[in-house]
Description:
CATH class of the domain at 252-375: Mainly Beta
Mean pLDDT: 94
Number of strands: 29
Amino acid sequence: MPFYQQMGKIPHKRHTMFKKEDGSLFREQVMGTKGFSGIQSILYHHYPPTAMTESTLIGECRVEYEEQAALAPRHLYSHEYKEETDAVEGRQYLLGNDDVLIGVVNPTKPMDYFYRNGDGDEVLFVHYGTGKVESTFGTLPYKPGDYIVIPIGTIYRVVPDEGETKFLVIETNSWITTPKRYRNIHGQLLEHSPFCERDFHPPEKLETFDDRSEYHVKTKSRGFMHLHTFGHHPLDVVGWDGYLFPYTFNVSDFEPITGRVHMPPPIHQTFEANNFVICSFVPRMYDYHPEAIPAPYYHSNVDSDEVLYYVKGNFMSRKGVKEGSVTLHPSGIPHGPHPGKVEASIGKKETEELAVMIDTFRPLNVVKQAHQYEDKDYKYSWK
Length: 383
């Protein structure tokens, strides 16, 4: 996020000596994006972040996609995926391309290792459950409706509370940020933005561990999972400052934009990345023109695929979807409301629906393993 944060202890000037009480130096790490031309933060460690004792290749972690099938809408019941494990090893990917991977996970136990994605930023949308994310930047508590945005290269682990937890997982090969049209030239969010900086929450506290035991960090990079072993705790940061850090944004803080007639999907946009966007459909007032049709018009996705993850509520334009349903409407053919939904929407004043939409600008593929969760009759549900 393009606003400044500082936590813990840092020296007066960057790139200068920062000494411990015994006279030895803390180790400075510049962590940034786009070479040295993007946003960055500077972290100060007890030990060099490069001081691994062993590097091991765990194995390939690329997903396998189905062969080309007939072009049609798709519907996956992600709630039928029941495996309970940790927040990384239990990820069930459903859709993807070279820009993004989309899946779900049901974490029921803390990770007994740390993890970093070396390919791009991650977003974990909390469908339900509470817990915390422990990272080099500090601890982030999470609750239902939170988008947890984790920058590339951040070492972290997820510690869920007791009870059921479910995340929608969005992994990128790029960056995640707020839409450019909602920011001024300095990066500040503008008055017409559906959110402001007050709605974005950096880590609550910085926990520093000066521990010389053995720790493991799994690193995802280049289609493979790697294991890096360190002789010190990876969360050994005593202070940091800058513009790059993990944060949460709760979907309840998204202020919907409404109009006299039906507004197009970009009004729901919450984040953007390279070749895809993330949108939030939240409870809102319907259109107020006396002859308005609140349901969306039929439209053709001429250059993007549309994915919807249904969180809760009665989605005004769809039949047969449940909490946790994932629909894919591919580019190349039109899509729109189910029969009867246009007429049923007339005269309605508001909706309580909640959903996350992902629009990609390159075609998505369906993961082979996702077939077991598919509603194969969905494509014919408009007849």
